[in-house]
């Protein structure tokens, strides 16, 4: 089998070499590592040994010629192959490890960047450009009132207010309600940025239908609120260990661990001990649910949705983490199936992500309880006889008082707190 | 200059070590030279990155290494493959390293050899620290640092020698004076009569030995090791030798030294004199030589196959080697670069 | 708890480390008998003996290189370089060996050591005694770079640095050594290397700084608060690895950031921080990220220090411009 030996870069960044002398003639045999040719580079005259044993079928260049690095130096094969005038498709050796980078342009498979219709001279901060894009405002068509004619957020808002219909149809689909323009500080006064901007002089009330999602939320909330006698119990938990464990897990596995994953883990033993928290009220019957399908509240642009982690009790923390991440992304992208958005047996809502503390969550229909966790913040806590600073996480548990008594509620909460305080307790499961 | 075996294989005195030891030293020099020749060939074939050959320095390196005990530390240079191999650095890792695979620096557990230092001279003080720590721990281990004549011009040589003497750390400074700092001859590098003479100024003994005489090098190093181990402090050894090959595969010695000079040193070849010594004692035959060469060749070829079959290092490994745990930035770069 | 200066807190950290771990040892110029040029190691040689606290020859490369060897062989050396301008002879050891041995040996050998370097100006010292060249260390993969600005952080971060599996360059703000006292816990505690510390919460503007410049940054924050601006102040504390998401979290809330450092502007860390902020929260920015830094000059001698060091006034002015956007 004929093989081509390509001239390697033998001197740290050389590009070519001159053939000084062939040490093995065409037709002669050569041993592996036997010097085959003497070449001269910019740095030195050196002998190059053959990488293989065999017969020298052809030289790639004559004495005195200059050869580029990477071109065929010599072809080596069986004696029988000598007959053929040119060896058919010799096997190339693997490229030398000291190789060169291709400079050929590649097709990147991407469209050219979108350019603005006119090479506009409009000056605006990225924040303002983003706002204009969302509101469907063409920056070229408004005059900037800022320094150097810069377009400010106020300019964009004023332009948006001037053409509300266009704004609505551009940004929201038909069944989506418009939202009030984001509140922004008035910065005309440097000394004291106002927290809210004064309303434009002429702003009229608007009436729009609720979106389907919003209507569903509204119906469920009303039903729960009117049917279920709610009791909410508040507590705080020292989240030092919880946060340590969370960040250790994240570091070890290189993934984000949503707080919900750990909270679900901490709640599950509570559902075992107090099955009335994992139940459905059906007329005069209480159905203790066999499955542990935990609903996770997800804040989406369309409104609050509850995505359901099926059989949460069969998942480890890492599996929970990835499942919750998947459901969160799916809920926001509206790609979840109806099954993934209903039928939970208990619900966890993390209002900490949006900075929340305590709250009075509403028990979703078909379940008996919901646990809300707030944002962990450093607070003084009593530690033995000392005051210490620790991250304190607020908990709020609402439950159906028809089937759960206050004492049971406390016992459930105590177990959850115990688990969240020392995650080893639930991680061991 | 201390020497024991003359270039013609005769000795000044009766052999002070078992002849079997000499046979073993010879066998190891043959294996080292096989590795060196193979590496030069592989570099010319494009299978190794730049290589720094040690041809001519086998006796110095193997003699010095043979004076050490298991667990002793070695901090050496890119030209010290024979020395490093003699104290447990596997050929396969040395080859992998020269092929540009980082696994080459991952010494097997228990082998206390630092991956070769590429900058000149910085590693001598490392050996001082290593020796210092072992003294504090009371393990009885010592350190040996190997370097060339060129490194003695570095400020780090001064700092290392001075620290070692000041704190009396258990260390051996082993200088292979091979005549050149790339192209710059040792006579021009220093006005000191010898490199060994520099030891005086630091308050430690300095000894000059024929570095092409494996027996003399072993004996001198063994004495320095004994001093270190028994708490008598550091020593400097100047092993006088010669680099028969180029500085590296990117170098052409014909530009700065006469062919005559190299030929003269060929006659003082460290392998040749031991072969003659053994032959005189009736302990060398051409069959044995052939057997040694075959054994060496198969050991090296096996190492080459291992190194060439290694899966290439991954992108993730590159980013995961920087810290004990990747930082936030590295984790993001891991994602971005995958 | 007792009220300690930053210098005393560092001394306490070293004392705690020496007593808790016999692998820990100190070395450096004048760290023994003299207790260090800033007295950070005061009394430790007397307490732990000359085999734990070493006076060394005047040889920064030797100090760093010897500490490297010791660390590889299992000790936990804490080396002191007297001033940042004197650390450059050790730079070769730090960059070429200390920061790289883990990589070079694929984790077989590591150099868990700490190099303490007093840094920064404002004390009217001789040339080379006042610089703030943290960026030259931050740019080196394999190193961690930590800069405390409070006594409590100083002790907790130094103990964390000593116990860290990777080498840490620990920069100590000379100007703050004895400027403030704070309650510092007794005994061992660590403050995690990495996260920024939100020193003050606010909603209009984020001021980002570290080390000695925290003093001027705090003054500026108070002045701005006095006129009703709600300022969030971040003490970065760890310059490598940078807590990029921690800073972005704050700036995405406030929409405005001013980064303050004593080092020269060009190639300084504020550039890296500003780039990282715009990568993460460009569309939350209400104004370009602003930098208040030393000038692109050699750190001046005593009589020109006032020209050089960023003042609270410069920070307030930068904040004002940013708030005008």
Summarize this entry quickly:
The complex is a heterotrimer of chains A (429), B (338) and C (325). In chain A, 26% of the residues lie in helices and 24% in strands.
Task: Summarize the structure in words.
The complex is a heterotrimer of chains A (429), B (338) and C (325). By secondary structure, chain A is α+β, with helices and mostly antiparallel strands. Chain A contains nine helices and 18 strands. The model of chain A is unreliable at 164-200 (pLDDT under 50). With 338 residues, chain B is an alpha/beta fold. In chain C, strand 2, helix 2 and strand 3 (53-55) form a beta-alpha-beta unit. Chain C has helices at 6-20, 44-48, 60-72, 91-98, 101-104, 134-138, 151-163, 214-226, 244-254, 269-281, 305-308, 312-324, and strands at residues 2-5, 24-28, 53-55, 76-80, 114-119, 144-146, 168-173, 181-184, 197-200, 205-209, 231-235, 238-240, 257-264, 290-294. Chain C has 325 residues and is an alpha/beta fold. Chains B and C meet through helix 5, helix 6 and helix 14 of B and helix 3, helix 4 and helix 5 of C.
Helix content of chain B: 40-55%
Could you name the ranges of chain B where pLDDT drops below 50 across 5 or more consecutive residues?
A: none
Task: Briefly note the structural class of the backbone of chain B.
Answer: alpha/beta
User: Average pLDDT across residues of chain A?
Assistant: 81
What would the principal axes of the Cα set say about the shape of chain B?
Answer: globular
Q: How many helical stretches of chain A?
A: 9
Give the C-alpha Rg of chain A: 36 Å
- Strands side by side in the biggest sheet of chain B: 1-2-3-7-6
Tell me the helix content of chain A: 25-40%
Tell me which protein chains meet in the greatest interface and how many residues each side has. Answer: B-C, 45 and 47 residues
Give the CA-based shape of chain A: elongated
Q: What is the first-to-last residue Cα distance of chain A?
A: 62 Å
Instruction: Give a count of the beta strands of chain A, DSSP E runs of length 2 or more.
Output: 18
H/E element order of chain B: HHEHHHEHEEEHHEHEHHHHH
Per DSSP, the total helix count of chain B is 14
Taking pLDDT < 50 over at least 5 consecutive residues as the criterion, the unreliable ranges of chain A are 164-200
Mean pLDDT of chain B: 96
Number of strands of chain B: 7
**How much strand of chain A?**
15-25%
Distance between the termini of chain B: 59 Å
């Amino acid at each position: 089998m004929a093989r081509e030996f390509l001239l390697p870069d033998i001197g740290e960044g050389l590009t070519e070499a001159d053939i000084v002398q062939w040490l093995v003639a065409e037709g002669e045999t050569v041993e592996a590592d036997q010097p085959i040719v003497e070449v001269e580079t910019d740095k030195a005259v050196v002998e190059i040994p053959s990488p293989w044993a065999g017969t020298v079928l052809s030289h790639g260049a004559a004495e005195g010629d200059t050869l580029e690095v990477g071109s065929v130096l010599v072809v080596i094969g069986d004696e029988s192959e000598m007959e053929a005038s040119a060896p058919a498709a010799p096997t190339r050796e693997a490229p030398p490890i000291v190789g060169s980078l291709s400079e050929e342009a590649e097709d990147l498979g991407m469209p050219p960047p979108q350019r603005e219709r006119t090479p506009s001279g409009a000056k605006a901060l990225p924040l303002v450009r983003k706002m204009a894009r969302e509101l469907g405002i063409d920056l070229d068509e408004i005059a900037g009132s800022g320094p150097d004619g810069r377009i400010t957020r106020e300019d964009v808002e004023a332009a948006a207010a001037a053409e509300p219909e266009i704004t609505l149809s551009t940004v929201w689909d038909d069944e989506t309600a418009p939202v009030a323009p984001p509140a922004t500080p008035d910065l005309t006064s440097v000394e004291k940025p106002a927290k809210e901007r004064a309303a434009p002089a002429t702003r009229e009330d608007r009436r729009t239908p609720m979106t389907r999602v919003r209507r569903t939320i509204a119906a469920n909330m009303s039903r729960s609120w009117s049917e279920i006698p709610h009791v909410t119990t508040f507590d705080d938990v020292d989240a030092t260990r919880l946060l340590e464990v969370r960040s250790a897990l994240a570091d070890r596995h290189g993934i984000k661990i949503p707080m919900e994953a750990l909270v679900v883990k901490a709640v599950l033993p509570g559902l075992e001990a107090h099955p009335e928290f994992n139940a459905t009220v059906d007329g005069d019957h209480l159905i203790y649910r066999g499955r542990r399908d935990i609903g996770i509240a997800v804040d989406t642009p369309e409104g609050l949705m509850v995505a359901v982690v099926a059989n949460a009790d069969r998942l480890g923390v890492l599996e929970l983490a990835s499942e919750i991440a998947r459901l969160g992304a799916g809920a926001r992208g509206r790609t979840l199936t109806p099954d993934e958005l209903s039928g939970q047996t208990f619900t966890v809502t993390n209002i900490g992500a949006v900075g929340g503390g305590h709250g009075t969550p509403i028990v979703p229909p078909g379940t008996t309880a919901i646990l809300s966790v707030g944002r962990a913040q450093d607070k003084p806590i009593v530690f033995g006889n000392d005051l210490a600073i620790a991250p304190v996480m607020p908990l709020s548990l609402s439950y159906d008082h028809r089937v759960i008594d206050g004492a049971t509620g406390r016992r459930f909460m105590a177990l959850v707190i115990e688990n969240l305080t020392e995650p080893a307790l639930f991680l061991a499961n | 200059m201390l020497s024991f075996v003359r270039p013609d294989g005769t000795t000044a005195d009766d052999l002070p070590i078992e002849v079997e030891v000499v046979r073993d030293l010879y066998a190891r020099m043959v294996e080292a030279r096989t590795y060196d020749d193979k590496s030069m060939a592989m570099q010319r074939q494009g299978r190794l990155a730049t290589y720094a050959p040690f041809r001519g320095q086998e006796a110095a390196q193997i003699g010095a290494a043979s004076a050490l005990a298991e667990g002793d530390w070695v901090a050496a240079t890119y030209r010290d493959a024979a020395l490093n191999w003699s104290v447990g650095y596997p050929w396969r890792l040395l080859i992998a390293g020269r092929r540009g695979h980082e696994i080459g620096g991952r010494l097997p557990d228990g082998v206390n050899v630092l991956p070769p230092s590429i900058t000149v001279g910085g590693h001598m003080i490392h050996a001082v620290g290593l020796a210092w720590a072992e003294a504090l721990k009371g393990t009885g281990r010592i350190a040996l640092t190997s370097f060339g004549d060129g490194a003695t011009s570095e400020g780090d040589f001064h700092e290392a020698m001075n620290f070692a003497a000041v704190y009396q750390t258990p260390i051996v400074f082993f200088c292979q004076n091979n005549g050149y700092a790339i192209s710059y001859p040792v006579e021009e590098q220093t006005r000191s009569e010898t490199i060994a003479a520099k030891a005086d100024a630091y308050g430690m003994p300095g000894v000059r030995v024929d570095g092409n005489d494996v027996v003399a090098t072993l004996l001198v190093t063994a004495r320095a090791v004994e001093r270190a181990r028994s708490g008598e402090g550091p020593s400097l050894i100047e092993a006088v030798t010669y680099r028969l090959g180029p500085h590296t595969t990117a170098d052409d010695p014909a530009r700065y030294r006469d062919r005559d000079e190299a030929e003269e040193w060929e006659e003082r070849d460290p392998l040749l004199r031991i072969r003659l010594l053994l032959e005189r004692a009736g302990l060398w035959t051409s069959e044995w030589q052939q057997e040694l060469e075959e054994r060496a060749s198969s050991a090296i070829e096996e190492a080459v196959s291992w190194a060439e079959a290694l899966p290439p290092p991954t992108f993730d490994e590159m980013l995961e080697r920087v810290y004990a745990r990747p930082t936030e930035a590295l984790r993001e770069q891991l994602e971005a670069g995958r | 708890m007792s009220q300690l200066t930053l210098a005393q807190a560092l001394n306490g950290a070293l004392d705690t480390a020496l007593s808790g771990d016999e692998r820990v040892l100190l070395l450096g110029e004048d760290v023994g008998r003299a207790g260090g040029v800033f007295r950070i190691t005061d009394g430790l040689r007397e307490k732990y003996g000359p085999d734990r606290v070493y006076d060394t020859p005047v040889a920064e490369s030797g100090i760093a290189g010897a500490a490297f060897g010791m660390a590889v062989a299992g000790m936990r050396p804490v080396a002191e370089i007297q001033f940042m301008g004197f650390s450059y002879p050790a730079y070769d050891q730090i960059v070429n060996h200390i920061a790289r041995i883990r990589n070079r040996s694929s984790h077989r050998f590591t150099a868990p050591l700490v190099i303490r370097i007093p840094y920064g100006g404002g004390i009217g010292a001789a040339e080379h005694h006042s610089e703030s060249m943290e960026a030259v260390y931050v740019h080196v993969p394999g190193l961690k770079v930590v800069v405390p600005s409070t006594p409590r952080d100083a002790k907790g971060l130094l103990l964390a640095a000593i116990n860290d599996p990777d080498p840490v360059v620990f920069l100590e703000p000379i100007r703050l050594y004895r400027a403030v006292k704070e309650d510092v816990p007794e005994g061992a505690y660590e403050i995690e290397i990495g996260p920024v510390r939100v020193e003050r919460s606010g909603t209009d503007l984020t001021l980002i700084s570290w080390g000695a410049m925290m003093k001027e940054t705090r003054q500026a924050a108070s002045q701005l608060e006095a006129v009703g601006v709600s300022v969030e102040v971040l003490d970065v504390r760890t310059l490598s690895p940078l807590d990029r998401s921690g800073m972005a979290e704050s700036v995405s809330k406030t929409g405005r950031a001013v980064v303050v450092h004593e080092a020269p502007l060009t190639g300084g860390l504020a550039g890296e921080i500003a780039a990282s902020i715009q990568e993460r929260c460009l569309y939350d920015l209400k104004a370009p990220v602003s930098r208040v830094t030393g000038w692109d000059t050699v750190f001046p001698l005593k009589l020109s220090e006032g020209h050089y060091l960023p003042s609270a006034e410069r920070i307030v002015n930068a904040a004002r411009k940013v708030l005008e956007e």
